[in-house]
Amino acid sequence: MNLATMTPPPVDDLQRVALKVFLTNDSELDPRDAIPVFHRWIQTHAVNGLLIDVADYAHLPSGPSVLLVAHEGQYALDRTHGRLGLQYTQTRPLDGSLSERLEVLWRTLVSAARLLETDPALPGLVRFAGNEIDCIAQDRLCAPNTPETLATLRPTLESLLSRVSAETDWSFTRDTEPGAPFRVTAKSSSSAFLDTTAAQPATPNDD
Amino acid sequence: MTWKHALGERVPDDLGREIDTYENQMALKRQGKLDDKVFAETRLRRGAYGQRYDNGQRNDGTGVKPLPFPSDGRTKGPDTVWDAPGMHRIKIPFGGLTTAQMDTLAELAEEYSDGVVHITTRQDVQLHYVHIDDTPDLMRRLAAVGITTREACGNTVRNVTACPIAGVCRDETFDVTPYAQASARFLLGHPDAQDFGRKFKVAFSGCKQHACGLVNMHDFGAIGVTREADGATQRGFEVYVGGGLGAVPHEAKLFEPFMAEDEILPTLQAMSRVFARLGEKKNRARARIKFLVAQLGIDEFRRLVREERTRLPRDDRWTDYLDDLPAYGETPLKTGEPLGDVTGSGAFQAWSRTNVYHQRQPGYVVATVSLPLGDLSSDQLRRLATVARRFVGDTVRATVEQNIVLRWVRESDLPALHRELDAIGLARPGAESIADITSCPGTDTCKLGIASSRGLAAELERRLAGQIETMDESVRSLRIKVSGCFNSCGQHHISDLGFYGVSRHVGGHVVPHFQVVLGGKWVENGGAYGLAVGAVPSKNIPEVVQRITDRYVEERNDAESFYAFTTRVGKRALRAMFEDLMSVPAHDVDADYYRDWGDPREFGIGDMGIGECAGEVVSLTEFDLAGAESQIFEGQLQLEAGDFERADALAYGAMLQAARGLIKTENIDISDDAEQIVAQFRTRFFDTELFFDRFAGGKFAQYLFRRHARQTPASGADTARQLIEEAQLFVEATHACQARLAAQPPVIPPPPDGPSAAGSQS
Ligand code: HEM
Ligand code: SF4
User: Fold this and answer.
1) Residue of the nearest CA to atom 28 in ligand 1?
2) CATH entry 3.40.50 includes domain B3-143
3) What is the number of the ligand closest to the CA of B440?
4) Which residue of A has its CA nearest to B4?
5) How much is the pTM?
6) Interface predicted TM-score (ipTM)
7) Sheet architecture: strand order including B96-97
8) CATH placement of domain B438-584
9) Lowest-confidence pick of A116-125, B501-510, B674-683
10) How many domains does the structure of chain A reveal?
11) In this structure, what is the dihedral angle of CA atoms B506, B507, B511, B516, given to the nearest 10 degrees?
12) Which of A28, B253, B255, B702 has CB atoms 3.0–4.6 Å from B298's, for a disulfide?
């Protein structure tokens, strides 16, 4: 697509965006084990959103594996590029600036991740790493997969990470596969777990 | 900037205008200025379907709970909440995909759906969990790569299907692709094809003997044939009409043994006009062209179409495409080259045994990408497009077995292709085998689903995949097809082992079951339809498969086909093989039976207490229902034996007995007298609408009324067979009605807005 002659919408308009945290290497979760857990979450309204249904794609070796679909977004045990993690994708528009929206997303994701970690039906199977986070933009109009998008988004992401994580030395790598959506991996050199990282009190949003 | 601006002229004018109109209608609907039914048909005609739970309620396993979408009463159809996720069906004529189209589909699945692309049983693509507000942009982005979703649903000409290996097949008469393409283009939006009472499905096949085109189950099916005339070979088609699966399946009837190629489009037009004029409009259940053909008789129908044909003003489009035929064909990306002595890894060998087909063009093969349940993720599809670009170019097709084929693979490239497919998780062996199961969406996303067809298919695939290498060859090539209900979107009638979802009421609970359908034929364009032999709890179906296939291996005569085997053994003996699996243990003995495959929720309408009195009445009803089922089964045996009158009488008797059972739930003393049963049933269950199905309304009751009104028994096989199918559905409806009554007081509160009867949407 040649969009060069037109003004793309500002990245700040980005609504369809996802964050993903990864299971640590020694986690032994079979995504299928989460199916009853997600169904229970629907019954008990355990996580944010109007929870609709569970979709089982555990037969796929890559991409979403087991999804908890909500009206506002999708919680997915996601296996894109073969790496299992929990991803939350915002699918309906949220109010606030992109920075504020990302923070809401982060909190939604982390509370679901923490619930999975402590679910009695998944004893010792789930632990999320706190040193690696993917941010995926599912909107090729607002956020094409280009170095420019990364440059524009980077300060917002850095600010988010400084607010929600104790880590400081984040590096950012963009997935450059042709055609793929904009995906940036933020990595820190520590070996922190999400439970310690996410326990950090958030400082007020000042950007 | 919006997608509309960004894509600009890449969206063809006519499609762009269409989408703009649709967007305007959405705006009107949001303002409440458009009727629900009108808007529903508007979106359906553009591929935007409803999806399960879009009525704003869902059984979470503890009961039916409201899903409070923030729609403020706005709806997108009768009983269909605006903000609820929908399904989008994307029409892919003859399954033909370019790599650019694959890229776009992957993008759309990511941006508007759940990141998964689903291939359907009619070579279409479906995306689920799509918000209606996103559909105009979704359509624009498709239009920019030459895809329209127009007429993917609704009462229109649906996707035109054709053999996925047309043009490279070793057995075809000629390549039917250009004819399928021309028909799809000609009929799309054609004014004569806009006023049908129901959908119209067209298929093309290059030969009679294989399955590929499935002509026998289509409204209009054409098989390529040639004849010698004036010293030249003339191309034409053996044309069939009035086939269809669904609740009351019909095998297609021969319309013409040789229709010259230049007559295909005008005949389709003439037939569309006759169907639009004379086809049923009010009663959806009898609106497919198969009912018109049955009602008029094939001879009268043919006469009417031919007469209509003579009246049509000439249209150059009928034949323009024929001028380009000699030049038609795909250009291979690479020159052909045999594989040579390469043996490759064990995995490669296993894959090439089942997933590779040698084209008639030397040095080329077709490689099948076998997709579990027809699914692949966005990133898999995008990478598959990259692989296709490298090996074959734009010669990819989706198949009715929910797979994707890469045509024109240079044979010597196979090991490299296998490696690359393996790297993206798309080198699953066992394509088109017993472990490559076809399934409709079922309860996962379909509003009409009764049992989980995908759950069952996934479970069977898991079990069979490990056995595929060691399995007897005769079993390996069998087909399993599963539908979530009697509508047969999974095409269970034309498989070796077919299953469709039903429910049974057991001890105050509802238990998911599947009817076992045997006697169908996949080959010969879906050459014979199977019949339901018995309903088995979902959890016992894998054991049914095991027993029947084991028996086939043990008792098969030489090269006897599965179809011949089932015919020889007979339905009674087949049923006896699994009769012990038909019962359900009590809930406190094994609660697993009360949950569906892949779904931990308590099935159906949830916990319900029943008093002693109700229990007693229920058991009397159960008794009659069981009797009705055995009458149907006996009727099938008589049908097989050629005693159509007896088969007809048994089917009629089954309906009467089921109706009588239902009447007994009201503590009525009822005799065996047919008049009395029908009268009581009418006043107590039909007039009160207690018997009405949420989607089908009173359709099933009409089966009984019609047969009762007809004094004479059936004399022909077709009529008797149809009555047996109808009786089966009547009994299913009785089970469902009984379950609803037992669940009193109703657990399901009426929805807060809109009327309650949604139209079915297929
Ligand atoms: C929202 C979900 C769906 C609904 C409500 C639905 C409804 C129906 C109904 C009522 C019929 C019987 C119609 C008749 O022949 O009288 C039918 C048949 C059929 N549908 Fe669906 N359907 C759905 C999804 C699908 C899907 C996903 C496919 C796959 C492409 C599909 C393909 C078919 C086929 C192949 C048949 C039967 C074959 C034939 O008669 O041509 N349907 N459907
Ligand atoms: S067969 Fe039934 S459950 Fe399956 S898609 Fe068709 S209507 Fe839905």
Assistant:
1) B489
2) no
3) 2
4) A141
5) 0.88
6) 0.94
7) B96-97, B396-398, B404-410, B364-369, B356-358
8) 3.30.413.10
9) B501-510
10) 1
11) -20
12) B253
